[in-house]
Amino acid sequence: MAILVTEDTRLVVQGLTGREGQFHALRNRAYGTNIVAGVTPGKGGTDVEGIPVFDTVAGAVDATSANAAMTFVPPAFAADAILEASAAGVDLIVCITEGIPAHDEARVYNYLKHTGSVRLVGPNCPGVLSPGKANVGIMPPNIAIPGSVGVVSRSGTLTYQAVHELTTRGIGQSTCVGIGGDPVPGSSFVDILELFQADPETEAIAMIGEIGGDAEETAAAFIAEHVTKPVIGYIAGFTAPPGKKMGHAGAIISGSQGTAIAKKEALEAVGVRVATYPEEIGEFVQEAL
Amino acid sequence: MDLYEYQGKSLFARVGVPVPEGRLAHTVAEAKAGALDLGGPVVIKAQVQVGGRGKAGGIKLAADHDEAAIHAEAILGMDIKGHIVHRVWVERASDIKHEYYASFTLDRGAKKHLAMVSAQGGVDIEGVAATDPDAVVKVHIDPVIGLTEWQARQLVYQAKLDPAIARPAAVTLRKLYAAFVELDCDLVEVNPLIVTGDNEVVALDAKVTIDSNALYRHPDFAEFSETFVVDPIEKMATDRGLNFIKLDGSVGIMANGAGLAMATLDVVDLVGGAAANFLDVGGSADADTVIDALEVLTQDENVGAVLINIFGGIVRCDLVAEGIVEAMTRMELPWPLVVRLDGTNAIEARAILDEKAAGKIIPAATMREGAEKAVALAKGAE
């Protein structure tokens, strides 16, 4: 089955005519993803290597029955692009754009929660790859093979590293999801863990976290209650220098201040085996299967 | 981007939050002139981005401009927890009746804005929250709606602020929230927010962090960044579009992606070494990026060996390999170079390195092997 993106995904690409958008959309199509439309205001009626371009997402959805959107537009316009895709009625929005202002992101997240059932992955994420089925985003699909391990990660290249560790051991993946490293991601670890738990094809889950925030701690609590499949963890940033100082206010909220050690302990406390070296991710998953 | 107190206060003044009148001074003479200009008693405040200024002697009350000069003399050049004081803020002294605490930030867990208000301001608020959690009132704010009037009132009454100033305090909270949102701040913190003898609510301090992703909306904030002292190597890296942070160890690091770079630092530590830096060449690195990054690393005298750890996705390993080869023809690298390349075009990359850099670089098959080799070489160089 896989989660989020499959053979049934009909993708509209916001920012298809831009350099990055075009490069990755064509790469995604070459992998087999069904890309039905692009959107660039002012370029409606043209096409990119046969993919029809529309002025609005609503126009694209009307004409092509697109059910998912991938957003490549620049950060100043990305929040608006997400709202437009949501209003046009797609089920899934994958936002690759990096550098969206935090307040825009928080407003969009809460607005989507209030208004509908659309699922947002990202922003600032590498996308979603269901090996052998569909690739929506910028992940290099050649490192992945179809199988039964769900991968969810806050990082980009570290996700590739983890997938590579699995593939070199002959362990395939159901879906690889990069949720992105921004403060307010559209989908959290918990959202994706819930999907993997419900997906009959997924037998084990690899979860790649990093310092900052409390998403891993929240995920640990969720795993204890709701996840029966084996989960293997990895946390990056044990020796990373303290990042942005958030003043006293940030320290009070996060409690543990989002350290790697706190996250590792929270996960281990609920039975998640946490790898110390990235190479061990594949090893531990193999032992869990 | 963290702002100095005087910069934060200039933003407060923009949105109508009362702040004491003051003058910025870089020298004793400027401080004295500022005090004379303001007239009457003034406070001399060290402008550093670190807490505990008062305890360190960085905040002094002066009765007149002569005493202001004496204090400025003592404070300018002072080392406060490793931060040298280059400027002081000379501010008209306030008549303080109450000291409160107020802040606005993003609660990442709740994915909403969070307001915190306490009647016990002017002190270490983390200590207050730890010993008496009820003394810090928290209210979540829906970013779509913003801080409503009733929420502002609720913060004031629940925190048990002086009822005589309930109305102006609520108004000030809403103005601070407006600054938080409209000026794209990650944090607005006022400690203390005071009530004067005349029942005026005034921001006596300002801790403001600006969201650097939103700077394009605020071209006028460029003046703030100019006042920051930046490490010359970090500046060189930033000018070349590299994400670089200087660290204390001897193993130079170059990786692509923040997550993989952090993991590389961790693995170097696990095998007994210490990284000299964090360097993320980004998601679209090519040969030129690699040359730029190697040049930056040559500036750091503490580096004894360098580990390049690349997982090619969008980044093509063959281009990285070509960058390594090109860099070695352009300059004499002062340290051994351990290279681990995996992912897109890694096979082609290894062929390039075998052909053109054989014997000049140390190849590694995995992250761990690369880290072990680099750590051993860095230790040998000491």
Structure description:
The complex is a heterodimer of chains A (289) and B (382). In chain A, 38% of the residues lie in helices and 22% in strands. Chain A is of the alpha/beta class and 289 residues long. Chain A folds into 2 domains: 11-121, 3-Layer(aba) Sandwich (Rossmann fold); 140-288, 3-Layer(aba) Sandwich (Rossmann fold), CATH 3.40.50. In chain A, strands 3-4-2-1-5-6-7 form a 7-stranded mixed β-sheet, with helices on both faces. The longest helix of chain A is centred in the middle third of the chain and has 14 residues, at 102-115. The radius of gyration of chain A is 19 Å and the shape is globular. Chain B is an alpha+beta fold. Chain B folds into 3 domains: 20-92, Dna Ligase, domain 1, CATH 3.30.1490; 96-226, ATP-grasp fold, B domain (D-amino Acid Aminotransferase, Chain A, domain 1), CATH 3.30.470.20; 232-381, Rossmann fold. Helices cover 38% and strands 25% of the residues of chain B. Chain B has helices at 5-14, 28-38, 65-75, 125-131, 149-158, 166-182, 222-226, 232-239, 258-270, 287-298, 317-330, 346-356, 367-381, and strands at 22-25, 42-46, 59-62, 79-80, 83-84, 88-92, 96-107, 112-118, 136-141, 185-196, 201-203, 207-210, 243-246, 251-255, 277-280, 305-312, 337-343, 362-363. In chain B, strands 7, 8, 9, 10, 11 and 12 form a 6-stranded antiparallel β-sheet that branches. In chain B, strands 1-6-2-3 form a 4-stranded antiparallel β-sheet, with helices on one face. In chain B, a hairpin with a 4-residue loop joins strand 7 (96-107) and strand 8 (112-118). In chain B, helix 5 (149-158) packs across helix 6 and helix 10 packs across helix 11. Chain B is elongated and about 80 Å long. Chains A and B meet through helix 4, helix 5 and helix 8 of A and strand 7, strand 8, helix 4, strand 10 and helix 9 of B.
